[in-house]
């Protein structure tokens, strides 16, 4: 196979010609002084799209989440979070190292928290307990299989949290996937949350970047913390231009990724393998007893996947993968099993 079919993640390997042209033409300035015009345009647009006062452009979704957590907790404070959420598995302990956060992990159903379970995890302040300061929701939920929070569930969880003095952060790295699949506008998902992070380098296909949105006061504080973490990049407008292009051209097409994921899942099941998640967006997880070995053999044959457990492989569809690529990948998988 001359071309690699990359199903490891929904990040693209190379921006297309039109996006590269937008990046080359970007007007830039110094982000340290808050004067890069393209970054400022992107931040204003994201804040408006999500219905918040302000936004901050950051290099990664991990940084956006860590900043949001730092806004809420002091060392030893507790964050209520789903047990397989991104900050627990994939953020290198940053919430603990930078914010001193303690996690109160609550198991959800395929990553989606039940209101009753969160209510049981809350408690009144006592000197011998961590102070509970925030609730984190992940939409879509990665390890849950790209699962979507319903708007009603988000509202109910946020109402519970706020009634108990907790702020709410939504890790919306794939919030556009949730919105396109559910039909719920992103600003409605964001309305009940105090802060929201979104990613441009996942399904939207920009090469770099995420954003954190919230109140003007929160974003001004986050700007300070971003600088602490080395995130005050200089002429970042070159990258922000790609994010603006992605917002203009790559949102509605996420439906094609969801279609291709469903096609891949049906094909995998047709080969006698078990798909372990309910395919709602652009991810499928399937079981194989030798996941790492199979992933290595697939890559040798030109199909990249991720062995996320000893017996589970993850595949993610995105704009670099079309329907014919899915059929080719299934043919390769069939030949190996």
Please tell me about this protein's structure.
With 337 residues, the chain is an alpha/beta fold. It has a seven-stranded mixed β-sheet with strand order 2-8-7-6-5-3-4, with helices on both faces. Strands 9-10-13-12 form a four-stranded antiparallel β-sheet, with helices on one face. The protein has a two-stranded parallel ribbon with strand order 1-11. The radius of gyration is 20 Å and the shape is globular. The model has no long low-confidence stretch (mean pLDDT 96). It has two domains: 233 residues, 3-Layer(aba) Sandwich (Aspartate Aminotransferase, domain 2), CATH 3.40.640.10; 84 residues, Aspartate Aminotransferase, domain 1, CATH 3.90.1150.10. Helix 3 crosses helix 10. The longest helix is centred in the last third of the chain and has 17 residues. The chain has 14 helices and 13 strands. Strand 9 and strand 10 form a beta hairpin. The protein starts with a strand and ends with a helix.
What average pLDDT do the residues reach?
A: 96
Question: Within the CATH hierarchy, at the fold level, what is the topology of the largest domain?
Answer: Aspartate Aminotransferase, domain 2
**CA-based gyration radius:** 20 Å
The total number of structural domains is 2
Q: What percent of residues are in strands?
A: 15-25%
Count of runs of 4 or more consecutive helical residues? 14
Which spans have pLDDT < 50 for at least 5 consecutive residues? none
């Amino acid at each position: 196979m001359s071309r690699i079919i990359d199903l490891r993640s929904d990040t693209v390997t190379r921006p297309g010609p039109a996006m590269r042209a937008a990046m080359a033409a970007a007007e830039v300035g110094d982000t340290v002084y808050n004067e890069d015009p393209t970054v400022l345009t992107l931040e204003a647009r994201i804040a408006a799209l999500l219905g918040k006062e302000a936004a901050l452009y950051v290099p990664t979704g991990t940084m956006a989440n860590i900043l949001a957590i730092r806004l809420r907790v002091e060392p030893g404070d507790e964050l209520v979070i789903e047990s397989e959420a991104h900050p627990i598995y994939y953020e290198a302990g940053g919430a603990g190292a930078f914010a001193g956060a303690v996690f109160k992990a609550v198991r959800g159903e395929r990553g989606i928290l039940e209101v009753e379970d969160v209510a049981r995890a809350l408690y009144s302040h006592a000197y011998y307990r961590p102070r509970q300061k925030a609730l984190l929701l992940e939409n879509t939920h990665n390890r849950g299989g790209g699962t979507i929070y319903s708007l009603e569930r988000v509202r109910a969880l946020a109402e519970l949290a706020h009634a108990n003095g907790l702020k709410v952060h939504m890790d919306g790295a794939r919030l556009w996937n949730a919105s396109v699949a559910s039909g719920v506008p992103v600003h409605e998902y964001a309305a009940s949350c105090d802060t929201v992070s979104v990613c441009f380098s996942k399904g939207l296909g920009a090469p770099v970047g995420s954003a954190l949105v919230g109140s003007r006061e929160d974003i001004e504080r986050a700007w300070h913390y971003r600088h602490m973490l080395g995130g005050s990049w200089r002429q970042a407008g070159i990258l922000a231009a790609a994010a603006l292009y992605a917002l203009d051209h790559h949102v509605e097409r996420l439906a094609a990724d969801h279609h291709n994921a469903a096609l891949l899942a049906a094909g995998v099941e047709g080969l006698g393998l078990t798909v372990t998640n309910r395919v709602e967006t652009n991810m499928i997880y399937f079981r194989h007893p030798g996941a790492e070995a199979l992933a290595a053999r697939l890559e040798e044959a030109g199909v990249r996947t991720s062995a996320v457990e000893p017996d589970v492989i993850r595949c993610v569809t995105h704009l670099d993968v079309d329907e014919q690529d899915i059929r080719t990948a299934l043919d390769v998988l069939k030949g190996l099993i």
